[in-house]
Amino acid sequence: MQQQQPELNLKKIIPIGIIVFAAIIVIALWSRMTVSIESGEGGVEFNFFSGVNTEVTYGEGFHFISPLNRMFIYDVRQQEVSEKMSVLSSNGLEISLDVSMWLQPVHEMLGELHQEKGQNYLNSIVRPSIRSATRSVIGRYTPEQIYSSKRDAIQEEIFTETRDILVDQYVQLNEVLVRDVTLPPTIKTAIEKKLKQEQESLEYEFKLIKESKEAERRKIDAEGKAEANRILNASLTSNILKEKGIEATVRLAESPNAKVVIIGNSADGMPIILGDSK
User: Phi-psi region for residue 104, left (φ > 0), alpha (ψ -120 to 50) or beta?
Assistant: First the structure.
């Protein structure tokens, strides 16, 4: 009986030891076996045996993975990338631009992005794309167009060309903003002076057009009055004037006010009003 006691203790100790050992292993590898992906992030798993898993993009939340594998975390929200650059206009003058892009990686293709471009994709892919597109677009315009009339069109063209470059790079471009355009001081002064002169010329031209229209209106008004008088004079025959005179005489006779009325002895017999007897 005394010889069986150590054997029984050993049978109890071994399972306990295995459990303790397993617990130690789990604790040691816990950080390698669990991944927490925060809001606005996506995960790409690198399998120790098969490489990057391009089929699955891990979303927000808590995930278990093999301790032999690794999880690479990406920000999948819209991001802003700003670039300050010097470019040449169509006539060879240097212009400084401050350009911003709003973009984000394509969530469903995060595995391909990681496999082909890597986590440094903003510097290796995005920034070169916006620089190339901006230089291409600005090179088609003069400083005056860039500074004033064509700014919106230039912004749209930069967006289109940058988007075309990034379309196969697993990056979604949402917007391009040209925030600032800086010209050489002498060029800027000359352009502002020219724009001021053009504005003054437009104002003077508008004033001339307005005065011309006003003169035309007065002419038409005068012609209308003259035509009305001509028609009226043509319609006032002697018989009509006599009739009007008789009507006026009748109304004067019926008036309660005292007055002296002399009936003319001319052919038209028009009355002459001398005034009240008062």
Answer: beta
